[in-house]
Amino acid sequence: VPPRRPTTAGFNCSDSCLTKATVQGETKMQAIPDTLTISFSVITQARLARTAVRDNADKASAVIDAIRPLLGPNDEVKTGRYNIAPRRPPCYANGTCPQDIIGYEVTNNLIVTSKNLTIAGAVIDAAVARGLNSVDRIEFSLEDQTPVQISALAEATSNALQKANAIAEAISGTVYKVTEVRESSSFFYSSISALSMSSRAEMSAPTPVLPGTVDVTARVDMTVIIV
């Protein structure tokens, strides 16, 4: 049995009555972050690998001991990456690069996660005082993105339906049904990258680090039939 055609005004609608329209609904929302993440590194260099490793371990332990009192019971500090790499002389002007090993560099990347958004500056200052020499990233984010994502998608869907109804009204029609919906959403966190530790070490005032907002963008592509 073939499917019944949609009807308008009491008469059967042929294919010529059917109009497809594709619309986009988009919304942008802001949310208050609830999680602080700081990624920083202790970097040491020495002629011998074992010396660089030992020096790095001493400095990293001192940094961890300095920041632990600032963290809450559910906060954490963990190793994100550990790397030992040979150091070689710089390349010559003609592009030739010497392969002689002149020393080693050890990088111990530490990641701090906290629910207290106000401690970022204090953590950095305490770590720098004990040997930290590279801050890679400071990020304010959401632990659970789902609620704000659902809210943004609902608003984007409503926006798309409003557009579809406006198009239908403009051509003296009615939205009969939605045939396809595709969604996408993105989060843009408030973040700071690559703070200069050389300039930070020369400053006596506390490091000011203020949380921003999490920007959420949701988009819905919707296809409807207008009769």
The helix/strand order is EEEEHEEHEHEEHE
Give me the secondary-structure category.
alpha+beta
Spans with pLDDT under 50 lasting ≥5 residues?
1-11
Instruction: Give the distance, in angstroms, between the N- and C-terminal Cα atoms.
Output: 22 Å
The strands making up the biggest β-sheet line up spatially as 5-6-4-7-9
Task: Please write out the topology.
Layout: E1 7-8, E2 11-12, E3 19-31, E4 35-46, H1 49-67, E5 76-87, E6 103-114, H2 120-129, E7 134-141, H3 146-170, E8 175-188, E9 190-195, H4 197-201, E10 214-226
Antiparallel strand pairs: 1-2, 3-10, 4-6, 4-7, 5-6, 7-9, 8-10
Helix pairs in contact: 1-2
Written account of the structure:
It is a single chain. It is built from 4 helices and 10 strands. It has 227 residues and is of the alpha+beta class. It has a 5-stranded antiparallel sheet. The longest helix has 25 residues. The N terminus is likely disordered.
Concise account of the structure shown:
The protein has 227 residues and is of the alpha+beta class. It contains four helices and ten strands, in the order ββββαββαβαββαβ. It is elongated and about 80 Å long.
Keyword list:
alpha+beta, disordered N terminus, three-stranded antiparallel sheet, five-stranded antiparallel sheet, single chain, 227 residues, 4 helices
